Structure prediction request, 1404 residues.
Amino acid sequence: MKNKKLNKKIPVGILGATGMVGQKFVELLIDHPWFEIVALMASEKSVGKKYKEAVKMWQGSEPMPFHVADIKVRECKPNFDCKIVFSALDAGPAEEFEEKFARAGYSVVSNARIHRMDSNVPLLVPEINPDHLELIKAQPYKGSIVTNPNCSTIGLVIALKPLLDNFGIEKVNVVTLQALSGAGYPGVASLDIVDNVIPFISGEEDKVENEPQKIFGSYVNKKIKYNDISISAQCNRVGVRHGHLECVNLKLKQRVREKDIIQAWRRFSSEPQKLDLPLASKHPIYYFEDDCLPQPKYQRDIDKGMAVSIGRLQRKHIFDYKFVVLSHNLIRGAAGGAILNAELMAEKGYL
Amino acid sequence: MKNKKLNKKIPVGILGATGMVGQKFVELLIDHPWFEIVALMASEKSVGKKYKEAVKMWQGSEPMPFHVADIKVRECKPNFDCKIVFSALDAGPAEEFEEKFARAGYSVVSNARIHRMDSNVPLLVPEINPDHLELIKAQPYKGSIVTNPNCSTIGLVIALKPLLDNFGIEKVNVVTLQALSGAGYPGVASLDIVDNVIPFISGEEDKVENEPQKIFGSYVNKKIKYNDISISAQCNRVGVRHGHLECVNLKLKQRVREKDIIQAWRRFSSEPQKLDLPLASKHPIYYFEDDCLPQPKYQRDIDKGMAVSIGRLQRKHIFDYKFVVLSHNLIRGAAGGAILNAELMAEKGYL
Amino acid sequence: MKNKKLNKKIPVGILGATGMVGQKFVELLIDHPWFEIVALMASEKSVGKKYKEAVKMWQGSEPMPFHVADIKVRECKPNFDCKIVFSALDAGPAEEFEEKFARAGYSVVSNARIHRMDSNVPLLVPEINPDHLELIKAQPYKGSIVTNPNCSTIGLVIALKPLLDNFGIEKVNVVTLQALSGAGYPGVASLDIVDNVIPFISGEEDKVENEPQKIFGSYVNKKIKYNDISISAQCNRVGVRHGHLECVNLKLKQRVREKDIIQAWRRFSSEPQKLDLPLASKHPIYYFEDDCLPQPKYQRDIDKGMAVSIGRLQRKHIFDYKFVVLSHNLIRGAAGGAILNAELMAEKGYL
Amino acid sequence: MKNKKLNKKIPVGILGATGMVGQKFVELLIDHPWFEIVALMASEKSVGKKYKEAVKMWQGSEPMPFHVADIKVRECKPNFDCKIVFSALDAGPAEEFEEKFARAGYSVVSNARIHRMDSNVPLLVPEINPDHLELIKAQPYKGSIVTNPNCSTIGLVIALKPLLDNFGIEKVNVVTLQALSGAGYPGVASLDIVDNVIPFISGEEDKVENEPQKIFGSYVNKKIKYNDISISAQCNRVGVRHGHLECVNLKLKQRVREKDIIQAWRRFSSEPQKLDLPLASKHPIYYFEDDCLPQPKYQRDIDKGMAVSIGRLQRKHIFDYKFVVLSHNLIRGAAGGAILNAELMAEKGYL
Prediction:
């Protein structure tokens, strides 16, 4: 529970602490009621520097707190006392380091894509598939690896979950308008995006099309049986700092009224809300009646950036519906999502 | 033909000459081989001023030419000697003035939406339905009214035309990322779009969903029989100056290979190319193999802004295809499209 | 003092509550420890609507609180029970209404420019000239009028104050890079600023050049004797949402070392800090050693947007220094500055 | 002269042909009446690829012409038949390669900074110091090295030249608002500039402060005697694609009327205009009366991007004047400036 006091906070480390997602981990963990940062790890060129010197441009809205600023950045080695290691590593280093930490007994809660589709690794969204955590019992590590979905997948799957449960979904088409911070730093060159949009993000469409089938899968016989939901995605980069907007078009298995769908979204509440996890949004989903909402600038930060905002639901033909969904890619779609996973693990005794 | 010399250029006027589309008409007509600007008309607050004073910010890439700069802006009255009147009026004034000019004997070539769906008014795209021009014979005017489609419709219908003809189309889903100039000037407030996108453009989705059925309709018994193509649209505004990008997802009536589709696009050529009209693009459609193209910044100006650029064709499931299409909203989607219509009318003897 | 509990909060109203500055007043007053919103006033087209309906796009980072959302917008009439009226009116309506309220006994704390240079009206910056409040004793109103400086003046004068006091200033040249929200809403058209900057803001240079002389003036014989500081300004609009950046170049009356100047800034503290006013920044000025700071995106929100950030101090020639200063135009430069004025008035017994 | 036909075009090569400036060289040379591209050179990772494959994103407004697209990129070696080598190299490789080419007999016309301040290398602006070309006679190379100024220096010195000649200049303060393309590609990260400006460009202020003294120097006794003009600069990066805007404040040696200054600018014409060089702007300087001009978006392309635009001249105090100047950083400030240098050299017999 949010107000639950632990006798002693759980020590955590961050792999890849200097990048965009790494910084967001730091920002969200600074005042965390359960977790306490004890180690910041990054690539060679940062090792040995104070965190404030290793970070090129601190992205937090408040100045970097002193006790974090002076932490010396360590190399990515499992040689310190700590329970959870959050990973904000890119795919390459993630492949190199995450298993090392898991084998050494750490709970690796990763935002990297590399192990997401591994058969014994949960692709965890606490609002959707908390039972997938069971998978880690079969992992060959002394510790464990748990992943969260890609930043463009998360808004979609949370929006779809109540529809899947209540009405059944036949197929989904989604077109994304993704924010710059999704590409990390330095990421997208300014000359590529000022007065422009880019209709391509390498590897992104595959993730949006394939991750939901695992996320919506059922845990049966110690395995995930993939859901057969069919998704097609087109991914675009737009000149927005944070917040992925997605235009969704789908075919439900039954004909329903718009208001039934809106009610399903508004009533949706799940494990993190029930357990009152510290970073859980009050409501997983907010639906806006105003025609021109949601917008990245105005809705991305709702409930500390952990909520998903939906609007513009319209029925086009029988069974065909369209709507717009927005989520904060760096928070709900990356660092915040991973922390929520760790909170669920802590509460459920998986650490 | 492009090089055809007329003994005397055809005098033309522009209604709504000071706005974004009006200025683009002026820019494109300045050196036009067939047409010559003789009258610039605008709303009361501009009447009597020199054009250079009535225009707040000249958008042309070259300085405004002297002979145009000094033209005195007239009121919207059909009282001068001229053959064609291009209309860049908003819907309200268009409703008030266009019919007056048509009744007075002028050929009104309009970019306004107000008469587009009138049963006796051609919704003309010279590459698609040049025969619809026949409709004007049944118009109750001494002159005539001809319209071009909405700026978000035009790229889509040109991209669809070769597919419709060659393979048949069952249904289409389109998500637009539309440029700022589509909203006119001052149009979108900067605070609404810096670090933001807006998932709503008033009235736009209806136009994209309904205009194609008329454009693709067949001229039978002096009427347009609407095509039954089914389209669903979601329209977004993004922080791009010019160039509407559209993510299209469609179901063809038959299974074809990607390369057949690309070939259909590349081979597509039509009336404006055959007649070698002055503003006709060399090819109506360019297909780009590069994964990250087309982009507004880099492809919107191809063939003087009159070509449509396509890329990222992918087959998703049997019969389902997706691709991205781009066109210049102010040129191909407004002033340039209207001028091409007038060129067709001139060449075909409809003036 | 910040934690001082009033037995009963002071009721306040807001004139022009629906615009950019008006909304910022609302946002900053929602949880104010001393003040309580009792009236929201706006122009005719908003009167009678609920505040949430009258506001086109709520700019607050949190959703609009319910108790404010449902307040019915009133007309600008001094006919309700309240002590302070904050004015976010444009110059025109400010001229019409502010004196009416002052005559009716209200303390009008205005962000409008119209009365700033009136001889009996304080142009108040609590860190600089708290004694100017004495002027209101000579005002012919039952209530009073107090103003704060233009949003491009405030950062400059706070940066200059410690230099003026410690070293003397001969002359100042300032070039501003001003944010979009300084122009209100809808304000700057997106087509004017995407891929562009505008080297002109109507009336702005005059304000920056003339207001400091009054602000730095001395209160002598119940009048303000203007300071003779000489300032030249060039004002530019840039595509930033909030935060005015200013490049300052000045000649001091004596030669000093850079570190003396930095020390003067860092040590600067004044009345609002001494009185611990609720909206006072902890430090009025923050100096950054990092070459590329301050930047609007990263420093505008420091100390709730009330602090001024300075960087890049360089000595060019003997007596000539240059530096960069940043302040939040909507907070420190408008609503926040006015509220700080009211807090000073409350604490000093001027209400 | 522009129309002068050479019997045979002069073969030219481009060093660093794939970057922003290199591409601009290519674009401007494609249809050049005197020069013909025979070699495109770049770093190792591009060598051997066709130019169209080596270039990540072609920045030209027209598609890359076929005969250039298929040129194979060579390594930077002086082993081919050609007269002039344009250098768009960064400082590092420029230091490595430019002298090699000069020693091998090529005329190296460079945009790189590395040799600009060398005592025997002209820092050439054909409108200002064509006689500095004499310096190359004293160069120890079989060929030669000629440089053009930094992209933020060029607009300033052209604006100052007529004032220096007519009225004398005591000192100058300049604040720049520089475009993104000045930093090359990928250059400025989008997250650093969306909703932001950066008050720092590494090394830039030094260049603006020091290059003019050489440019305005006099060629005496086979050496450049530096001018003693005193300049102070503050350099900012803004979210504009192309076009550096500069706010200038200066003290003239004599009191003059604004209209005398404007006349001096408008009458200014120099060697490139006299010789009618192909890339010479019709007028080196355009002065705009409109308060809100010049703006990057609207004036940067005047006279093919080779003209300098000025506006907002104001007299502040006796002898003190301020104005705004704009020039295209990639054209006038880089590739175009270098080509104009080469044209001057060709016309004057320095090749």
